[in-house]
Structures are given as structure tokens and as C-alpha cells.
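Input C-alpha cells:
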């Protein structure tokens, strides 16, 4: 199960918790894009309570990043647990999005 909390602000911030996988990554995309389209700006995902992601979720983050970059904005993930950060590094996604 996942939870996406819209924090708002500038940059547009979301707090993620639980597990995000192929079952619910489309929901994450819809929530984020729904807010982003209202007021496009840089995106931040607070991930300190995120416990699991899969390859589908990685693809969802890339899709979000590509849409944001097309508008001149960035995507940053903060407080990733080491095992989750490792997935981004293995896939070289740390080269295209900011990981803290």
C-alpha cells in the first residue's frame, strides 16, 4: 500500500510512504500530474517513509521527470533509504535526477 501526501509549496512537494509498485504506480503518476498541471514547478519527493519500489516505479519517476524537464523544471528525491537509493544508482538515474 502507498500513500502520497501533497505538501504543496514551491517547489511542489509530495511525501511518499509505504510501497509503490506496478499495482499502484499509475495512481502516483495521476496524483502528481494532477497537481503539477495546476501550477508547473520543480518537484520534490520526500521518501523517508517509502519502504519499497520496483522497476515500474522507477519508470514512473522517469516519466514524471521527462514531463517536468520539458517545462524547464527539475525533480528531486530526498531521504531515500539506502536500499532504494541503490536502485536509482544501479539504473544510472542519479545522473538525470537529484537524489539526496
Amino acid at each position: 500500500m502507498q500513500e502520497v501526501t501533497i505538501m504543496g509549496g514551491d517547489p511542489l512537494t509530495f511525501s511518499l510512504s509505504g510501497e509503490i509498485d506496478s499495482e499502484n504506480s499509475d495512481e502516483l503518476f495521476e496524483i502528481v500530474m494532477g497537481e503539477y498541471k495546476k501550477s508547473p514547478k520543480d518537484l520534490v519527493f520526500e521518501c523517508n517513509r517509502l519502504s519499497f519500489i520496483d522497476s515500474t516505479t522507477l519508470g514512473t519517476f522517469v516519466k514524471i521527470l521527462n514531463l517536468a524537464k520539458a517545462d524547464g523544471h527539475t525533480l528531486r528525491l530526498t531521504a531515500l533509504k539506502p536500499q532504494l537509493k541503490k536502485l536509482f544508482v544501479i539504473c544510472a538515474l542519479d545522473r538525470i535526477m537529484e537524489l539526496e
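The CA atoms of residues 20 and 53 lie 5 Å apart. Strands lie at 2-8, 12-20, 43-53, 75-78, 98-99.
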